[in-house]
UniProtKB/TrEMBL annotation, chain A:
Gene3D superfamilies: Glutaredoxin. One of its GO terms (cellular component) is mitochondrial matrix. SUPFAM superfamilies: Thioredoxin-like. It comes from the Eukaryota. One of its GO terms (molecular function) is metal ion binding. This is Glutaredoxin-related protein 5, mitochondrial. Keywords: 2Fe-2S, Iron, Iron-sulfur, Metal-binding, Redox-active center. PANTHER family: GLUTAREDOXIN FAMILY MEMBER (PTHR10293), GLUTAREDOXIN-RELATED PROTEIN 5, MITOCHONDRIAL (PTHR10293:SF16). It comes from Patiria miniata.
UniProtKB/TrEMBL annotation, chain B:
It comes from the Eukaryota. InterPro entries: BolA, BolA-like_sf, BolA/IbaG_stress_morph_reg. This is BolA-like protein DDB_G0274169. One of its GO terms (cellular component) is mitochondrion. Belongs to the BolA/IbaG family. Residues 116-126 have a biased composition (Polar residues). It comes from Patiria miniata (Bat star). Residues 116-145 are annotated as: Disordered. PANTHER family: BOLA TRANSCRIPTION REGULATOR, BOLA-LIKE PROTEIN 1.
Length: 146, 145
């Protein structure tokens, strides 16, 4: 009710802008939009918060793992900013939790899977397939032992 | 069990009633106190027939009210995971707990291994500390977003 009154009181141009924002936001969770997002970069992460300030321990773990491997440039999307995106990504990948990691548009998994791949060396291989050389390969031998 | 029944039978009648009531109520409330945990345990046991199963409520590690059942870690050791990829194993567990995940369960950490892998390495990764995400979400909800 109060939002209706607010809309009536604001100027028409502002109202149209707000309406477009809502429409754009509603599109954020659509399959087409998410498909575009996951294909937009080699490494795409849907997380809570942003890489410089994660808002969830599991999301932070993923950010730290990528950092350890020297992957600093990747696309990340904050699901806390957009409820439609949050719901849309869960439906798209048929995966119920956040964070979600995509390599070349393919869903890889969440925090647990990233952690296990990091521990058993699979992550270094997967990054190599993307054409990314893991920083751990250049690190002194002791550091690469998990 | 025999000791318990012997103790109970030796006590006076009123004490017997109180003792039995205490035991029964404790067992009944243990299950109904934690309905989500109980449901998770039952479903995982039924689907995977695990040789080892741990269902750990980690909600206390996060910014949620006391007694919540929102964040869980499950350790499932089962032959059912043999030859399955990591992601397939997790999807199997997610599908089994679909109802809980669409309902109260907000986060689920999964360790899914075969008995052979478990005997080689029985360690379970520790879940990372909360960074306040749930408090942030609660604040957003209160703002009516």
């Amino acid at each position: 009710m109060s939002s209706l009154i607010t809309k009536l009181l604001v100027r028409p141009r502002t109202y149209r802008f707000l309406l477009q924002q809502r429409f754009y936001a509603a599109n954020a969770g659509s399959r087409e939009n998410i498909e575009k997002l996951v294909q937009s970069d080699k490494v795409v992460v849907f997380m809570k918060g942003v890489p410089t300030q994660p808002m969830c321990g599991f999301s932070n773990a993923v950010v730290q793992i990528l950092r350890m491997h020297g992957v600093d440039s990747y696309s990340s999307h904050n699901v806390l900013e957009d409820e439609d995106l949050r719901q849309g990504i869960k439906e798209y990948s048929e995966w119920p939790t956040i964070p979600q990691i995509f390599f070349n548009g393919e869903f890889i998994g969440g925090c647990d899977i990233m952690l296990q791949m990091h521990q058993n060396g699979d992550l270094v291989e997967e990054l190599e397939k993307l054409g990314i050389r893991s920083a751990l390969l250049d690190a002194p031998q002791e550091e690469t032992k998990s | 069990m025999l000791q318990v029944t012997k103790t109970i039978s030796q006590a006076s009648l009123w004490r017997q009633v109180r003792l039995i009531k205490g035991v029964v109520i404790r067992h009944v409330t243990m299950a109904t106190d934690r309905p989500v945990e109980t449901s998770i345990r039952q479903k995982l046991t039924k689907t995977f027939e695990p040789v080892h199963l741990d269902v750990i409520n980690e909600s206390s590690m996060h910014n949620v009210p006391r007694g919540s059942e929102t964040h869980f870690k499950v350790v499932v050791i089962s032959e059912r995971f043999d030859k399955e990829s990591l992601i397939k194993r997790h999807r199997l567990v997610n599908d089994t707990l679909k109802e809980e995940l669409e309902g109260p369960v907000h986060a689920l950490s999964i360790q899914a291994k075969t008995p052979a892998q478990w005997s080689q390495n029985a360690s379970v990764s520790k879940s990372p500390p909360c960074l306040g995400g749930m408090a942030h979400e609660q604040a957003q909800k209160n703002q009516g977003r």
